[in-house]
Design a protein that fits this description.
Layout lengths: L6 E2 L3 E5 L5 H10 L1 H5 L12 H16 L4 E7 L6 E11 L5 E8 L8 H16 L4 E6 L4 H9 L3 E12 L2 E11 L8
Parallel strand pairs: 5-6
Antiparallel strand pairs: 1-2, 2-3, 3-4, 4-5, 6-8, 7-8
Helix pairs in contact: 1-3
The chain binds coenzyme A.
């Protein structure tokens, strides 16, 4: 069980995913449909419905309840009803791995303001200090320059390249594999 509370930065409130935000989440996904399509699986029309958004947010809650993952919805401070981004830590594995995959996206109109970097700082601190994970992995397509710059700024190190790694936007896509390890040594329980 992972207990989640909101995380705060100078400009942002990161709210744990909850079906109560389904309408706001759907608005974010609809207005960023073209912006995100290149980096995501193909979506059908059902995906862009409030019921479907609510079910996805409920699944994120279950993942936290079962210790498998966490998802935060990014909102600007003082505007808690408008989602402008999302960060997930998925496939959390404990034992001798203590690792998770990082995912992130921000509203097209809010790029280039350092908001994702600001949000990742608190999420990575949460992953390392609260969840006590050892390794966070983040992978991007070679032509995703913004993602590459963001990860580099956050200290992620390139560990390799994977051919035909994920089936995104209708085809298998090569990825650059990166990871960040906890500066504070963590030992398996
Ligand atoms: C990847 C993604 C999250 C990066 O967003 P971003 O806004 O570029 O990232 P940051 O929040 O770190 O902002 C950095 C930019 O803000 C600028 N900036 C402006 N004000 C700033 C501030 N106060 N502090 C820090 N940076 C600031 C930086 O100079 C930088 O601009 P540059 O990249 O043109 O040099 C975004 O492009 C996105 O959502 N893409 C689609 C989904 C996606 O690709 N997800 C990842 C799949 S692997």
């Amino acid at each position: 069980m992972i207990n989640l509370s909101p995380l705060f930065t100078d400009r942002l409130e990161l709210q744990p995913a909850t079906p109560a935000l389904a309408k706001a989440q759907l608005a974010f996904e609809l207005s960023n449909r073209a912006h995100l399509a290149r980096w995501e699986p193909l979506r059908d029309e059902w995906y862009f419905s409030e019921i479907s958004a609510g079910l996805r947010l409920r699944q994120y809650q279950r993942d936290a309840e079962e210790g498998r993952g966490v998802a935060f919805l990014l909102t600007l401070k003082g505007v808690p009803e408008r989602v402008i981004g999302q960060i997930t830590l998925s496939q959390i594995v404990r034992g001798v791995f203590l690792a998770a995959y990082l995912g992130y996206k921000v509203d097209a109109a809010h790029q280039g303001q350092g908001l994702m970097r600001e949000a990742l700082e608190v999420v990575l601190a949460f992953a390392f200090d609260t969840l006590r994970l050892h390794r966070i992995m983040a992978n991007y397509q070679p032509d995703n320059e913004r993602s590459a710059r963001l990860l580099e700024r956050c200290g992620f190190v390139i560990e390799g390249k994977a051919h035909d790694y994920l089936f995104l936007n209708g085809a298998w896509r090569d990825h650059v594999l990166t990871a960040l390890t906890n500066p504070d040594p963590v030992l398996p329980a």
